[in-house]
Each structure stands twice: as C-alpha cells, then as structure tokens.
Amino acid sequence: MTTPDDAPQDRADPEIVSQTDAEEGREARAEGASSGGRRAEVAILGNPNVGKSSLFNHLSGAQARVGNYPGVTVELSQARLTLAPGREAWLTDVPGAYSLSARSAEEQIALGVTLGLGERRAPDVVLLVVDAGQLARHLYLALQLLELRIPLVLAVNLVDEVEGDLPLGRLQAALGVRCVATNGRTGAGVAELKQALLATLDEAALAGVDDGALGAGAGSSTLAPLPTPKYPSELVAALGPIEAAIPDAWLATPHRLSAEDSQARRRALALWALTSIDDQDELQGIPEALRAACRQVLEREELPDVDLEVISARYAYLDALVQGLAAPEAAPLTQKLGLTDRVDRVLLHPLFGFLIFFGVMLLVFQSLFAWADPAIGLIESGISALQDWVKDVAPSGLLRDLVTEGVLGGVGNVVVFLPQILLLFLFVGLLEDSGYMARVAYLMDRVMRSLGLHGRAFVPMLSGFACAIPAVLATRTMERQRDRLLTMLVIPLMTCSARLPVYTLIIGALFPPSTVLGFLPVQGLLMVAMYLFAILMTLAAAAVLGRTVVKGRRVPLILELPPYRVPSFKALLRATLQRAGSFLKEAGGVILVCTLGLWVLLSFPRAGEPAPGESPEAHQAAALEQSYAGRVGKAIEPSIAPLGFDWKIGVGLIGAFGAREVFVSTMGLVYGVGEPEDEEAAPLREKIRSEMNREGKPTYTPLVGLSLLVFFAIACQCMSTLAVVKRETKGYRWPLFMFAYMTALAWVMSFIVYQGGRLLGFG
Amino acid sequence: MSERPQPSSGCCASPPAPCTLDAAPRGARLRLERVDGERAFRRRLLELGLLPGTLLQVVRVAPLGDPLELSVRGTRLSIRSAEARQLLVTVLEPA
Questions:
Q1: What pLDDT sits at residue A72?
Q2: What is the number of structural domains in chain B?
Q3: Any chain A CB within 8 A of the CB of B37?
Q4: What CA–CA distance (Å, rounded) separates A725 from A723?
Q5: Which residues on neighbouring strands pair with residue B78, listed in sequence order?
Q6: Where in chain A is the domain with CATH 3.40.50.300?
Q7: What is the CATH T-level fold of the domain A39-339, as seen in this structure?
Q8: What phi and psi values does residue A178 have, to the nearest 5 degrees?
Q9: Are A181 and A174 in contact (CB under 8 A)?
C-alpha cells in the first residue's frame, strides 16, 4: 500500500476478481500495463432498440444478444475491451433503459450499475448510445448521467437512418462530452469511439488533480461546462432534507469530483430519489431515512407537481438544445418510418395482420415440431449406436451399464434438446431483431393480459407445445421477472411432443378404433380433447397463479414499436449458439445427474443371473420389481390407487420422470414384454389390455386410461424442465413449487376423473 | 396557440374542447394537454417526451380493440385505452 491518496486505484478488489473469475487473474500482467493500476470499467447504456448490443459486439468482439425489442438484454453481459495496445477495459452491457428513474427492481439496474452499488464497481466512463434520429428523447438519459457528473461518451448511432450531416461538433460543444457518429450494423465509428473513451478516461483520471499541475495544454482539452436544467426554485429549496439523506456509497465516484460537482451529484441523486421513491415502489436497498425524507417532501402540498416539473425542465433544456443544433430530427426519419408504416398497414391489419401472424406462428411451431425431428432422430440413433458399441467392446457388468445407461443416456438426454433450442432461438431472435416481436405483443396484448400474462409470453407458450425446455429458456424475452416466472410455471402444462407416445399407447390400447356419429374417430377425438384440456388447464393455471403465488402489480403497457430492421444473421447465429452453449453448461449438469439418479433407482439393487428357463423379459421384469424404483412404486401404490393406478404404473411414472416418453419403455420392462421395438408397441398394448388385477378384473379400463391421460397431461413428469427452471430462476424454490403444484393438480384431476367415473358407473 | 378552431368529428366538438385520448379521432393531429394516471406510468410517459403541449396522433387501434398505437416525437408507442383515458388532448386538425 502506498499513500492513502493512491489507495482507491491500487487496492486489489477481491469482489471484482471473484466476479469476473479467472480471467482477471490471467490478465493481471496486462492490467499492470494499463494506466491507473487497474483495468477501467466502461458501462454501455441506452434506450431499448438503439443498437446498444451490436455496438457492444463490435467493440469487444464478444458474444452478446443483439435485439430489436425493449429489454432484450436481461442479464448484464461483460466483455474485455482493448482501447489501445496495453489499455484494456471491462465493458458491461446494461439492459436498455429510457431513464434512470425506477419503480421496479429491474428498472433500478441502470442506476445501480451507474453508481456502482452492490457488488459492482462504478464505471469510470459511461458509453451512452443514442438514436441519431431522436436526439431529444435519447439525450434525456444523457442529461441524467451528466447531472450525476458521470464521465460520458456519446455514441450517436443509427446514423444510416438519418439523412444529412449530424451537427456533432455543436452537440459536443453544447453537452460538453465527446460525441461519435456510429453505425452498429457496420461497425463504423468504433475506432473513434475507443479514442473518445480513452481521452475521457484520461481526463477523468486527471480531474480533481490540482489545476496548476495540469498546465495549459491539459486544461484546453476540458470540454464545456456541464449542463444543468432550470428546476423551479421552490423545488430545489425543498431538496435539502433528501440531499442530506443520500447514502455515502451513492456519492462515491472512481474519479475525484470538485466540491461543486459533488454538490451537483448530490442534488441529482436527490432528484432521482424524489421522482422514484414512493410508497408503491419496489426498489431495493433504499435507506429508511431517505424514504422518510422523500415522503415528507412529496406530502408538502405547496410544492408543484414534482414529476412534471422535473421532467419538463429537462425537456425544456433538451428541446432548446436540439433546436439549436438544427439536428435532423423528425423529417429525415419519415422515410424509415414511412416504410415501417406501410408494412404495419398490412401486418397490423385486422384481417391480414392476424392471418400473417398465425402463419408466422404456425411456421415457428411446425419447425419445432417437424423440422427438428430428423436432427433429434440423428442424435438419438447416434447415442444408441454409441451405447451398442460400448456394449460390444466392454465386458458386461456394473461399469458398462453405468457408462451406457447412466452417462451416455444422460448426455443423450441433454443433447437431444439442442435442435429445438437452436431453432427456437433462431426464430425468437429473428422476430426480435426485425421488430416483429413487439407487434406480436401489440396484437396479442388484449388476450394475454386477461390471463395476467405479458403479450410476449405468446411465443414461449406456443413453443411449449413442442417442448417445454426451449420454451422456458425463451421466456427471457420478457423484461419483468414476474412475467417470466408466471410464464415458466404454466408452460409445462402445454401438451409437449414427449406426451404423444404416452397418449398414443394409452389411447391405442384402451379405446376402440370406432367412430361416433358415423364419421368421427374416437381415438382422434380423444387426442384433440387432450390438447384442448391442456390449453384450458394452462390458461386456468396462469389466471390462478397470476393472482396468487406470483401476484404482481398490474403494470400499464408502454410498448415501443420500433422501425422494422433487417436482422444481422451473423449476430443472430452468434446469439443463438451462445444460448445453446449456456443451456449445455448450466442445465446440462443437472439433467445428467438426474439421469444417473434415475438409473440407480431403476437398476439397483442389482438382480442376479436369470434363473434357468426364465426368459430375459421375465428376468427384466423381476429385476425391475425388486429395484428401488419397484419398491418406491409399491410404496406409493396406496396414494395412486384412488386414481386407478397400481404399482406397475407407479414404476412407469418414476421412469417417465427422465422424459415422459420413457413411460412406454418402462411399462414394457415392467410387463416383461421388453422395450417396444416401434411406436406401435403392439405386444405392450396387448399386455395392457389383458392385464388382470388381484380380483381378477382388468387392471386397465377405459376409465383408468382416461385417468392416466389426465395425470400425464398435468403432472410435472420431466426433470429436464425442472432443471431449466432451476437455471432460469437461480434456485430450487420455483422448480420445487412447480413440481408440487403440478403433481398435486394432476392427482386431484385424475382423482375426480376416476372416482367420478366410478360413481357414474363407468369402469 | 394560433390554431384556428376546426370542426371535428367524434367526441371533440368545436371549439376544441379537450377530450380523452382513447376517444380522440384516429389520424387527427392532437395536442397533449394533460397527463394523469398511476405515478410510474405517468412518469415514464413524461420521460418519453409526452409532455403537455406535445403533438401526437392515434395511428391505429389493435385489431382486438386494444391497445392504441400513437405517433409521437417520431416514434411509435402503444398504450392501452384504459390508460389513454387518463390523457387529455385537443384536436388541432381532424384526420
């Protein structure tokens, strides 16, 4: 440690090291070379849809989501940024925000990152991306940052969408910050941006150092005095108690501030508090003293309309500034908007709009359902070829079974989801980046909100018909944690494709291939009924859960419909691969472990050799009966007997937890007819039809079949779904809740069907 | 404001009397007079530049009858009619 003055720069920050893991340590030498003794922190902020994420990608070459819909970057992506040889920085992509003011914890992220609250380090400089065609609205955020005295560089983006020259020089002079024209699509202006960041970083590092030591040269690089809007004097006078209650941590800055700037920052924070804090906010980490101070000021009746006055003062300043620039404000935009308008006239048309909407949704659904199939088949046959190969080369025994059934089976269980995940994310990315996803939310808002769901929940829920795993991952397209959670909790109720083999088996075995009314096939009707039943259950669950367990304040919709833009396929592909990679990394492990656990349940304790004369199938059935799974099946029999199920079905349910379709093969094993060779599973169907219970009556009646269908429609028979929900909610609480509520609901519904049916004289 | 009073359709009779945004004629040039509503919603609208005096237009209504699509300050915003009821506008120029 050197002098106390140097301490803030020299002190190694253990939190940051742990946060950015090994990379920081690996780069320690390079860091030493960067000026100031530590790597600079750069945060990239901007309104949604401004092309922030694509600039982030151009600056860092790193992988981050590039989107065209408000709130795409839900998590903060970080990447290394080389400003110049030997000058490295951390670049953090902050979720899109229109303003620093906040009501929800999600909106609070912008301020939290900007101030360096919590475990994060405050940025040394903020890179603010603004829309060249909409300066006044986008500069609102710039003004807030400048009021906080945060070193700023302005990237004036989307320059390709405005005609005429941007008056950057005048903007720079008026705001007192470096401004660079950029094009996120081509990467134009990125080199200049790095220079501007470097210059601003150096300037901030020198700030507060005694002016005399700088000399004339350094002084001249200082830009114009920072702007301040004219707030009503009675409001400013009332801020005193709030200013006094601002926590010290909020005032701390990486660079040194003059006494004047410190006071300006304190005032800006007081204004933030006054316009954000009230009795209804959901903000986190606000000290009670600050709350009390805000409450007192807000209750003073002689004060003018606080929010209106503050925001009007800022806009008065910005409108004057933009007018002074003679910036290409609205007029040149009309071309882009004109095209968007013409497209919207069709895509949002009451008739054609919905026809196209259904067409697009059908395409997404069809691709997940059908196009992914060959790839899934390939993966499945590849895994089973591997398993066969191991069986050929390795001596039979525990280790071989562990490798084939446990490890290879587990890897297969993970990889098999990749085709659908890749396809869905490709589609979701396309919809977002083109701007159509915002239109989906617009078109579906009325329907979805009556269920308490966000308009954007439509695509993930639709995907649930194919598979819940990609669908749960796709809920990230929603901004609010509450909306995501609610959607996630009901998605697994949709009839996913893994239920179909089970439905086919039960319907095929227990319902006659006859027709009603002469032409309607019973079996087909039943299948359709199962889909309708699932949709009904999903909507009901959403309505109930949204009003109870994940109750959220009703949030008024403010949805920006961005201009249509051509997506960048490179960025799309990169984002899709990144999503798939993070699924493998973060959910893969849990799925693998669960597969191993299930394998242990189903194959231990191990059975001895088959007795002489015992068929292999009969031996398998005996082995399964005395396995842990068989014992659990018998143990739970009393609890599932009221649903019409015996212990063998119980074992099937345990097996189906790995993946629903495994129910079919587990039942084959339980009944000693071996694993079904094909989808028909004819021997198994025969066995099911002829199975007798202890009283000599058929175990399976159509009523039992119906009860089983209902159970499968609702129960959370899928560990992989639970694994991705655990990953998305970062904890065990919600997957456990999901398992509990779905299982309980399934039990109750099956109970009603079976016992009700018996009362009515069926079965 | 120097706009001449214009005869207008819908709820807004001449001379221009303020009407709520959800009832304003589609396509007409409107001036925002007053923004009310729940605090966070109102604050966000103001911050997006929907201040008293701002010019705007109702471009269209979603096919299912809600929400509305507004054109304001060169962007397109969508809000529900329940909230649009909290915004007062005057018609400057009928569609």
A1: 33
A2: 1
A3: yes
A4: 5
A5: A559, B69
A6: 39-339
A7: Rossmann fold (3.40.50)
A8: -70, 135
A9: no
3-class DSSP state of A516: strand
For A690-731, the pLDDT digits (tens) are 888 777 788 888 899 999 999 999 999 888 999 999 888 888
List C-alpha distances in Å: A51 to A54, A561, B61. 5, 15, 28
Please give, rounded to a whole number of angstroms, the shortest distance from the CA of A92 to a CA of chain B. Answer: 24
Whether B6 is in a domain gets the answer no
Nearest-10 crossing angle of helices A647-656, A628-640: 120
Closest CA to A574 of A59, A65, A72: A65
Q: Which residue in A136, A307, A348 is closest to B60 by CB distance?
A: A348
pLDDT of residue A225: 60
Host domain of residue B89: 19-93
Domain membership flag for residue B70: yes
Stated pTM of the model: 0.81
- The reply to whether ipTM tops 0.90 is no
Whether B10 maps to a domain, the answer reads: no
Decide: residue A535, CB within 10 A, 0-12 exposed, 13-18 middle, 19+ buried. middle
Residue from B31, B35, B65 nearest B47 by CA = B35
Averaged pLDDT, A336-357: 87
In this structure, what CATH number is given to the domain that contains residue B54?
A: 2.30.30.90
Find the range with the poorest average confidence among A17-26, A199-208, A224-233, A317-326: A17-26
CB neighbours of residue A517 within 10 Å: 5
Verify whether the Cβ–Cβ distance B47 to A559 is below 8 Å. no
Q: Euclidean distance between the first and final Cα of chain B, in Å?
A: 19
Average the pLDDT over A196-221 and give the result. Answer: 62
Residue B11 covered by a domain = no
**Residue-by-residue DSSP string for A352-375:** HHHHHHHHHHHHHHHIIIIIHHHH
Torsion, CA A584, CA A585, CA A590, CA A594, rounded to 10: 40
State the greatest distance between any 2 C-alpha atoms of chain A, in Å, as a whole number. Answer: 103
* Other Cβ atoms closer than 10 A to A256: 15
SS3 at position A581: helix
Nearest residue in B to A275, CA atom: B43
What is the rounded (10 degree) CA torsion for A375, A376, A380, A381? -40
B36 touches chain A (CB under 8 A): no
Instruction: Answer whether residue A332 shows pLDDT above 80.
Output: no
Query: What is the nearest CA distance from A680 to chain B, expressed in angstroms?
Result: 44
Distance from C-alpha of A522 to C-alpha of A527, rounded to nearest angstrom: 9
Q: What is the pLDDT of residue A336?
A: 58
Where does the pLDDT of residue A616 fall: very low under 50, low under 70, confident under 90, or very high at 90 and above? confident
d(C-alpha A398, C-alpha A402), whole Å: 6
Asked if B75 contacts B84 with a C-beta cutoff of 8 angstroms, the reply is no
Does B48 reach chain A within 8 Å, measured CB to CB? Answer: yes
